[in-house]
Each structure stands twice: as C-alpha cells, then as structure tokens.
Specification:
The protein is α/β, with parallel strands linked by helices. Helices cover 37% and strands 28% of the residues. The protein has 11 helices and 13 strands. The strands form 3 sheets. The protein has a 9-stranded mixed sheet, with helices on both faces. A two-stranded antiparallel sheet has the order 4-7. A two-stranded antiparallel ribbon has the order 5-6. It is elongated and about 70 Å long. The two termini are 16 Å apart. The relative contact order is 0.20. The mean pLDDT is 94.
Length: 289
C-alpha cells in the first residue's frame, strides 16, 4: 500500500506527521519526495547504501581559449545569466536555463553544454525500515522526474525487503512534483491547518487528488489554534465528501521531538498527539473513514 501525505501549503506539519506514521507502523519504506527541500533524512539519519546522481538538465560553459569576449551571447540571453566581468564573459550556473541559445549563436564556438548532475538520489536503511529520498541541487530542475525515480526506487525496495507499506512524504502545493508524488498511490492524506489560506490551499490540493480519483482524507493539524476555522474546514470537507480523520491539537512537544531527531511518536508516545496519530494511522491502514 502506498500512502502519500501532502499539504496544500508549506508549514502545516506534514513532515512531522509523516515521521510519526513512519515510526508507528511495522517496518516501512519511507520515501521523501519533497526533493526541493528534503528533510526527513535529518530526522532519521539513514545509513546510506546507494547514492546515484541525477541529471536534471544542462548548463552552458565558456571555453576561455576560444572566447573573444565579444559579448554577443549577453544580448541574446533571456535569463540574464551571462555578463561581463573583470575576467571576461561569465555565465551564472544558477541563472542559466540550459536553453542552448548562447551555444548556437556564439560565432566562435566557445560555448558548450554540460550535464547538471549535482542532484542525488539516496537509498538506505533507517530505524524502522528502508528509506529513499532525493535532493535536488540549488538551481536544478525536473523535480517531478526525480520524484518519479525516487518512487520507482521505493517500490523496488518494498519488493526486495518485503515491506508492503510505502509512506510518501510529498511536497507542498499542487505542482508537478505533487502530481508525481500521488500518481498511482492507494491513498492521499492532506494535512491542513485552521486558517483561511490553509482552507484555500486544501481546496486546491483536494481538487488535484480528486482529479486522479484517489481516496483522499484530511488531517487538521494544530486544530485548537482556531476551533471555528477547524469547524469551517470540517464542514467544507463533509460537503466535498472528504473524511476528516483527525483534529490534532497544537503541541510544542512536536518541535521538541524534532530538535532531538525523534518523531513525536518516539519522543512522547503517551501524549495526546501521539495517541491521536496512532489511532489515525490504524484507520488509514485499514481503510476506515
């Protein structure tokens, strides 16, 4: 069973809840698909057994022996990635879009393209199973493609190690990486918070998962910070046919757990938050609304 945990916006506590589920379950394959800002590896400190490079695109590089500093390429670059410097014409690695135009218009053949291969895909073990995650290097693209590779690797790990449950910590928002994270999963859990922006982004995330026909559930995190808004979100979910499977109160112990590299289920297993998450996870695994 593949369960994707996503959120319409960042900062809702999605990764904290993913971490709690990962340490409540039987041995699992934990997959961090938030490749733009992967963070679960910090919490679980997995033992890396495989490291693979990921080519997310290309970037332009100048051959100093051929470049005459004519500057023609500067006027053509739509991304303002090329400029003059005391050393001559330079290309910014982070601003370069890899469009090949500068290579084509350079009259001296002084520009060529090289692979962007700084992004990585890691596979290894953590204290409750196997872990797969990707880290997109700054300025690199194709995060959806990297997410696909992470999920493909996770499925192989699931099969190889006999771990039936795959927990996917997806990225926030509704972009390409989110779509790559939820395509083909068995369930989606959307984590939201009691705020107007939380409701707005929940609506968008629910629209995306609904368009795939995936069973979708909702968790309202920090629900007691605004009970009225939590009620509004629950009413909206009911009208949309979405089950709210948990209203989790704000608990500073969640932050304490993270600071100590633990999930809340490990740090304070008897807390109200842990008890709610334990029952919620059982319901998700057994398909209860």
């Amino acid at each position: 069973m593949e369960i994707a945990i996503i959120s319409g916006k960042g900062g809702t506590g999605k990764s904290s809840i993913s971490a709690a589920f990962a340490t409540l379950a039987e041995p699992v394959v934990l997959t961090d698909c938030d490749v733009d800002a992967a963070n679960l590896y910090i919490l679980f400190d997995p033992e890396h057994e495989e490291e693979e490079s990921f080519v997310g695109g290309e970037k332009a590089v100048i051959d100093r022996e051929l470049c005459t500093n004519c500057g023609i390429c500067i006027s053509y670059c739509a991304f303002e990635a090329i400029s003059f410097s005391p050393e001559g014409v330079i290309i910014s690695e982070t601003a370069c879009d890899g469009c090949h135009l500068c290579k084509r218009i350079c009259p001296h053949g002084a520009i060529h393209m090289v692979d962007n291969d700084d992004s990585r895909l890691y596979t290894g073990s953590f204290r409750n199973g196997r872990m797969v995650y990707g880290r997109l290097a700054p300025g690199e693209e194709n995060s959806g493609k990297l997410v696909n590779l992470v999920r493909e690797k996770a499925r192989k790990q699931s099969k190889a190690f006999g771990m039936e449950t795959i927990i996917i910590d997806g990225p926030p928002g509704i972009g390409c990486p989110v779509i790559s994270s939820i395509t083909g999963v068995d369930q989606v859990v959307i984590v939201t918070e009691p705020s107007l922006s939380g409701l707005h982004d929940l609506e968008r995330a629910a629209d995306v998962s609904g368009s795939f026909g995936i069973q979708t559930r909702v968790i309202i995190n920090k629900a007691d910070l605004d009970e009225a808004m939590s009620d509004t979100i629950e009413t909206w979910c009911r009208e949309r046919g979405l089950a709210v499977v948990a209203r989790i109160p704000f608990n500073p112990e969640v932050v304490e757990a993270m600071v100590n590299c633990k999930s809340i289920s490990e740090w304070a297993p008897d807390s109200e938050t842990s008890q709610i998450l334990r029952e919620t996870w059982k319901g998700i695994l057994h398909g209860k609304s």
